[in-house]
Amino acid sequence: MAEPILEVKDLVKHYPLTQGIVLKKQVGAVRAVDGVSFSLTKGETLGIVGESGCGKSTLAKVLMNLEKATSGQVLFKGEDITRLSGAGLKAVRRNIQMVFQDPYTSLNPRMTVGDIIGEPFEIHPEVAPKGDRRRAVQDLLDVVGLNPEYINRYPHQFSGGQRQRIGIARGLALKPELIICDEPVSALDVSVQAQVINLLEQLQNEFRLSYMFIAHDLSIVRHISDRVGVMYLGKMVEIGTEEQIYSHPTHPYTQALLSAVPVPDPTGREHRERILLSGDIPSPANPPSGCRFRTRCWKAEERCSTEVPLLAVPSTLRGPAAHESACHFAEVRDVIGSG
Ligand SMILES: Nc1ncnc2c1ncn2[C@@H]1O[C@H](COP(=O)(O)OP(=O)(O)OP(=O)(O)O)[C@@H](O)[C@H]1O
Ligand SMILES: [Mg+2]
After folding, report:
1. Where are the alpha helices (DSSP H) in the chain?
2. Which residue from 192, 111, 195, 194 is spatially nearest to 156, judged by alpha carbons?
3. What pLDDT, in 10s, does the model give residues 265-287?
4. Which domains occur in the chain, in start order?
5. Ligand 1: which of 15, 186, 214 to mutate, judged by most atoms within 8 Å of the beta carbon?
């Protein structure tokens, strides 16, 4: 087995809910990420999917150390980065970069593209000494498929797809090993999405990058991911290889998500089932007892309200389909159809 580059152990991020303007008494907590564990190996892409508000961006921010973890560990190459500060933190930050969703708001409109891409060198001058910076930025523009002569242009002179390339170039500047992409193509036109995804894949091969790839679009996640994790209300409910998750989903929530993915069927013969979930997502400030998904689950029984299902390989699963699922009644149900 390849060694993990990232190991996340029982990670928790709670945001305090306060009342009162001055004294700010804590009256509860939003359990945005609530005990999440997984690992990522070098060169691998882990896709993360789940409905809005389930904690994907919070997870990304804690991994980036932009938000302090409430508890748990984030081991980057064996070192717990939640406990780092100062020089140690700075060194690790270099290795983990992020590409954000919105290329329209994440680039400073008053800075030139050259200054935006070269900004990380101000903090880490050792990567590109001052005299080499212009060349380094031009190289990066070239690597992401932009004309190096655009170095003095401003963000508004570029299209959405080009701006996301600028964001990616900035993310690459410090030669990171891990890039966390939070909905990197959601704001782009469908035709442009494929180009940016292709670029990310090409860069991954070239620089042996590891990706955590957060997205709503299950087809894109399937295309780019080696493994996929499904989150619900702050928990990871199922995780496995792309093939295991899409062809042998065992958690009812995953099955419901996948059943909603449009699959082109030119024959018109396929009878796909659609699983419609009833009810709204409960509040992460007050999640249901036991299994958090039970209030919307058609399989829920008494046990589900008292016993928290652990993320583990169910004993009923064997062979290539065997992967982790947090459901007391996990069983394979092919919802996409193999035809
Ligand atoms: N700074 C904050 N203070 C309080 N609550 C927060 C904060 N940031 C996020 N939350 C809450 O934490 C939960 C998870 O939010 P998060 O942004 O991580 O979800 P997400 O999965 O990224 O959603 P989306 O798909 O819409 O981007 C939500 O209930 C959100 O309201
Ligand atoms: Mg988000």
Report:
1. 56-63, 86-95, 113-123, 133-143, 160-172, 190-207, 218-224, 242-247, 252-259, 302-306
2. 111
3. 666 556 667 888 888 899 999 99
4. 4-325 (3.40.50.300)
5. 15
